[in-house]
């Protein structure tokens, strides 16, 4: 699923949450309107029209500002058609998912001679990440919000997803978030963090991680947590090897390479032989 179809799906599936976010007030009655307007119909996958009490909310999701016709002209065109059709005030919001190249102006108005039309632009990279992290509906947008540590934000989003019930809903939100995170993050980083998120749900892994933290491996919280995870992967790998789990499956579950797993196995066998020699 592409990002624009996903944004449209979410905004039409949960129109009240998007209206509350972008209008800044709770909207109890929200209706999704058709996206085809016309005299000459115009349609876009990333456009959503929501009707709240006595107002139309027009949402447009963009990753870049370039378009044909230009974005300001399109927003004016939509406004005229919406107002002519519904005879209601129209609030237009462009949700810009990614920052444009440095120096690129972000226009919020169409202006030509005596014609002037304004619209709003929401810059996702300036939005408060906490707002999205606390709302399961808007959680997929969290990785695109403001942060000094992108990997840490993605990790927190994965932790929030792990708490969602039931499982089907959790998997749904996870897939949505990974699609949008793909706009900003390397795919390998996304896979690693969400693989670790699955591991966190394992009781055995939690016990191992807790032991690692309690044994004084911490040099600051983040370093210690990372070390605990590494120790956890190794301990879990050894347990799986002892139970006869195939190496390829262990690699998929733990994120370790086959070479790393084979090295751990060799070291474990070597340590076992050394201990046996001492006993004899």
Q: How would you portray this structure in words?
A:
- The chain has 280 residues and is an alpha/beta fold.
- It has two domains: 3-125, Trna Endonuclease, Chain: A, domain 1 (3-Layer(aba) Sandwich), CATH 3.40.1350; 127-201, no CATH class.
- Helix content is 52%, strand content 13%.
- A five-stranded mixed sheet has the order 1-2-3-4-7, with helices on both faces. Strands 5-6 form a two-stranded antiparallel sheet.
- α1 packs across α2 (15-23), α5 (150-162) packs parallel to α7 and α9 crosses α11 (258-279).
- The chain is elongated, with a radius of gyration of 25 Å.
- The termini are far apart.
- The model is unreliable at 215-225 (pLDDT under 50).
